[in-house]
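Appendix B. Chain record.
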Amino acid sequence: MIFDTDEGKIRIVLFNGSSQQKNTTTGRPEILYFDQYTLETENGLYNKSRIIKPYEMFLPDLLFPAGDMKNSLRMKMIATGHERLLSPLYCLVFAMLGAAVLAVGKYNRRGRMGRILFIGACSFLFYLAIMILLHTIKSLSVTIPSAYGLILFIFFGFWTRLAWPDGKKIRGR
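Structure tokens predicted for this chain:
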């Protein structure tokens, strides 16, 4: 239970718990079991002067940060938010890349190692390009749409490769 008093203090009442402290002389832990314990704080529950790091924040706070901070921290927060949105799409692109390269083509064992190495190299270059685009956001604002565009281009490019392996177009009746 948390109680807010009129004096600006906050009291936290804990029930049926334990408190563990280290004895500095012996180095052994001392455990205190209690039925009820009241903890009083002067300045609130936490230190409000600490700046919350971008990986500790929620997505709306990252994508739309408050305007009263440094521009470099603001851009870092926006880049972290977009990285959170883009990271689930990586697995789709990597799977589509592997399926497009391995499924289309000759079905023999020779040459498969070259295809696998090609998939690995393409995946590495794709991930490197996305990271470069997201970490250059401080200087260029066009990099965020470029990162999304790169993912969509690769995904739909390899999807069309799977759908029409010979390059044939769909004909209407």
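Further analysis of this model is presented in Appendix C.
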